[in-house]
Amino acid sequence: MANILIVDDVASLMPNKGSSELAEWSQVTENSRVTIKLLDLKGTILFASPSHRRTYGQESNTYIRNSVFDFMYSEDIAKFIYATEIMMAKKESVSLQLRMRYRTHRWIRVETVCSPIYDPEGKIGNIVMTSRKIGVK
């Protein structure tokens, strides 16, 4: 069974600015051991959760408007592309292990789940990529 989420505007998922929910949302995303990226279908990062600072040692704005491949170990790029092609064909989430760049240019292993996000016409418009360091439960 696949989970389907239709989103016109990612910002609509976030609490309103100035609300107490926004403060709670910020605390959760900053202290999470899971990172969340929203990608377009070419791999451009549209959103990166604040937890990137804790996991990768870089602020989330470092990732915005850059290619996810810029932060991925070169030998893992083909595996990622293949996994997302399967995701697109089956229209369901896929999981894989990757090496992602840490701030000091060393590589850390992560378990990643890529999930399709559908546009109002029912076509896959974006990809949500959630990752956590392997060994972190």
Describe the structure.
The chain is an alpha+beta fold and 137 residues long. Helices cover 23% and strands 30% of the residues. The protein contains 3 helices and 5 strands; from the N terminus they run αββααβββ. A 5-stranded antiparallel beta sheet has the order 2-1-5-4-3. The N terminus is likely disordered.
**Number of helices in the DSSP assignment:** 3
Distance between the termini: 24 Å
- How many runs of DSSP E, i.e. beta strands? 5
What sort of overall outline do the alpha carbons produce when their principal axes are compared? globular
- Runs in which pLDDT lies below 50 for 5 or more consecutive residues are 1-12
Report Rg.
15 Å
Strand order of the largest sheet: 2-1-5-4-3
Give a brief rundown of this model.
By secondary structure, the protein is of the alpha+beta class.
What are the SSEs and their pairings?
Blueprint: H1 20-31, E1 34-40, E2 45-48, H2 51-56, H3 77-90, E3 94-101, E4 107-118, E5 124-133
Antiparallel strand pairs: 1-2, 1-5, 3-4, 4-5
Features:
about 140 residues; five-stranded antiparallel beta sheet; 3 helices; alpha+beta
